[in-house]
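This protein record is not my work; I was only asked to verify it. Where you disagree with what is written, explain briefly why. This is what I was given:
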Amino acid sequence: MLNRRLIRNFDFYLLLIVIVLCAVGTFTLYSATRNMEGLPDPLYFVKRQLLFMGVGAAIMLLVCFIDYVNFKNWTGYLYGANLVLLGLVLVIGEVEKGAMRRIPIGFFDLQPSEIAKVIIIITLARLLAEKEGQFPYFRDLFPSLAATALPMALIFLQPDLGTSLVFLAILLGMLYVAGAQGRHLGLLIGSGVAVSPIFWFYLLEEYQKNRLIAFINPELDPTDKGWQLLQSIIGIGSGGLLGKGPFNSTQVRLGFLPDHYTDMIFAVFGEEMGYVGAVSLLLLYTLLIYRIFWISTQAKDQFGALLCCGVAVMFFFQVMVNIGMTISLMPVTGIPLPFMSYGNNALLVNLTSIGLVLNVAMRRHKIQF
């Protein structure tokens, strides 16, 4: 039997925000895919999204009712299993668009790099909570740096630059919240900037360089490398104040915008719903992130607070980069928009992350028996 206080502490506000985002995302996905050529069913993508939304909701509720302290105890097993999966991707993974990121499992392609996001949040939360806010020396950051570097390197080898950047954001955000000194974080960032030429000349794939070049000046190659970004900007700009209305995206109907139902779905939403719709969506994301941070302040321990902060940073960074790349404020890196972009793995992981936050909220007071 569940203690009544757990149910009473369930954060229905957070759940409502997620439900609204999922509803908006599903409607936008339908608008973006209903007339796609070659589909066996106009609702093909919507049905799959709803199916995995249901699976994700079940996982979210399951995660809610397992005391989050158990995840702290299982950190080593979760971290090790994820490293195995990330290694398997490089051996038996399916190649798609020049990258090897998925392991085919029947009708579902497992993407361990998405799972790794929530695993690294749990891992860092445990490591940082054990320090109890004490980071007098730079070497105190080494365990967290090492724990992040290993899965991040395996993901970079796929190659998946976007998810690697999410790991960096989670690491820096959680270190800051945990109490790491500003000069140490500055040293980390400065070191990253210093080694960036090595990444550019020796580690980045040609298509990744082209994306960065296109971000700086898409007009240099408007019919190839800069095409996607330019069409995204055109679509959002043509939406005006109130948008063209549902199902009226010219960029989708005429096939101008690549990846319009995955990475670029915000461009579809912006064209159809306009400035008012785009601002409303940003407000929803702001409420989501604010609510998660608020729950972190109510957590009964440092581990729970850091779990919530890690999830909030993950969502913030993904929203910022995805929307930023559709309006040429960020380079195109293939980061999906949470609860909006089509993607089964990302949806499952996002809902699982929400489950962790709800878990912390439910146990924000110690249960008295």
